[in-house]
Every structure is written in C-alpha cells, then in structure tokens.
Write a structure and sequence with these properties.
about 230 residues; alpha/beta; seven-stranded mixed sheet; 6 helices; 14 strands; binds nickel (II) ion; binds manganese (II) ion
C-alpha cells in the first residue's frame, strides 16, 4: 500500500493497482501549488462531506478519470447533476464490498453543505479493509466523538488512521490522541492543519503529544509518499 499526501485532507492510497483518492482539494490550496490535478490517478474517489476544502476538485478529477465516486446520498445527487457518471451512494453505518476491499461508513461529528449552499447530508468517515496491506480509517472532518469507540467493536484492527489535528474546524491534536485510544490505533497520519490561518499548528508539539502517550503521529510532506506494509 502506498500513501501519497496531496495536502489538507487529500490523500491518494494505492492498493495493488487500484488508486483511491480521498477528499480532493488541491487547486485551491496554495501549499499544494506544485501538484497538478491532471496528474493524479484515481479509480475510486471518497468524499467525506460537502465542504469545498474536501470536494473542490472532485468533479474535474472524476470526469477526467471516470472513477467511481463513493459519497453520501446527497453528494451523489449533487455530483450526478453536474454530470459525474459513476457514483456509489452510501450512508453512515453502511458497508459495501468493492474490488479493492470492504468500505464501512462511520459517524463523523461535523457539518456538511455543498459549495453552492445545497444541503450536503451528514458527514462520514470511512474504514477501509483492503484486500492487501491492511485496514485503515479516514475520519474526514470530525470532532472527537464517543462514536469512534464503535470502530474497534465493528471493524478489523486498524493498521493506521488519518485524523484531522488542526483544531478550529475539527478536533485538535490533543483530542486526536484520545481518538487514537478510542479507535485502538497507535499510528496516526495527521491532516487538516496549516492550510489556513485558523489551523496552523506547531508540528513538534503535535508529534510530542503523541510520543508522550507512546503513539506515532506522522506528518507527511505535501507531494510525499509513504510505503505501508
Ligand atoms: Ni468540513
Ligand atoms: Mn474541512
């Protein structure tokens, strides 16, 4: 499994020869100006919720790649009206077996409206049990929530999780340490920090907060890749 960071909350994860893409927001991110959205491979795209900093480049990438978009029902309808062809609607609590693995939609404590003001349904996180390389959780934007405790009760053990740590709009890194207890996973990849003034963080302090609890916080350079497993 290869994990590539495209900035903010956008990750490309390759499972075998299948490219997953999460929450594409690149062209509006000054920190990701060296990434060209036309170079990003995508077979399956995941949208956690409707906010622009998660969906901005979804339409363009979906139309170019003809990928399947996985999102909630309201975003399915919205993208469908824009002419995106392949969309798999899901909702919180639901699971589906895709060729690359099983996806379960889990609770995120946040809000969700689309960039034009359309109702965006509820935000979701995704637990992905890949056919090779392990199981991981992409939380999307969320507060720390007790619902996270359900993940170890209902999903295979997590190998890693991608959690927001920037505060203001989501949980901060202190709450993310507690989240990592709730989900019983000690390897966390941080996201949703530094992009805007409201969410700039001290990287060393964030890493130390995890270290003090015997956990790893990985902060990936934008454009950087991690090999997993
Ligand atoms: Ni959001
Ligand atoms: Mn966001």
């Amino acid at each position: 499994m290869t994990i590539k960071y495209y900035g903010h909350a956008c990750f490309g994860i390759t499972i075998g020869d299948t490219n997953l893409l999460f929450d594409p927001f690149i062209s509006g991110n000054e920190l990701a100006k060296d990434i060209n959205i036309n170079d990003i491979p995508c077979n399956f795209m995941f949208i956690s919720h409707g906010h622009a900093d998660h969906i901005l480049d979804a339409e363009a990438i979906a139309k170019r790649t003809n990928c399947t978009v996985v999102c909630n029902y309201e975003i399915y309808e919205w993208l469908g009206k824009k002419g995106v062809q392949n969309i798999h609607p899901m909702n919180t609590g639901g699971s589906w077996n895709f060729p690359f693995g099983k996806v379960k939609c889990v609770v995120a404590q946040h809000s969700s409206s689309l960039p034009d003001g359309t109702y965006g349904g509820n935000p979701m996180g995704f637990v992905i049990e890949a056919t090779e390389g392990g199981c991981f959780y992409f939380s999307g934007d969320t507060a720390l929530t007790l619902d996270m405790q359900l993940i170890p009760m209902t999903c295979p053990a997590l190998d890693f999780a991608i959690l927001p740590i920037g505060s203001n709009f989501t949980m901060d890194y202190h709450d993310a340490v507690i989240a990592s207890d709730f989900i019983q996973c000690n390897t966390i990849i941080g996201c949703h920090y530094d992009t805007f003034g409201y969410i700039k963080i001290d990287h060393d302090a964030a890493i130390k907060a995890f270290e003090e609890e015997g956990k790893d916080l990985i902060l990936t350079k934008i454009g950087g890749e991690l090999e997993w497993g």
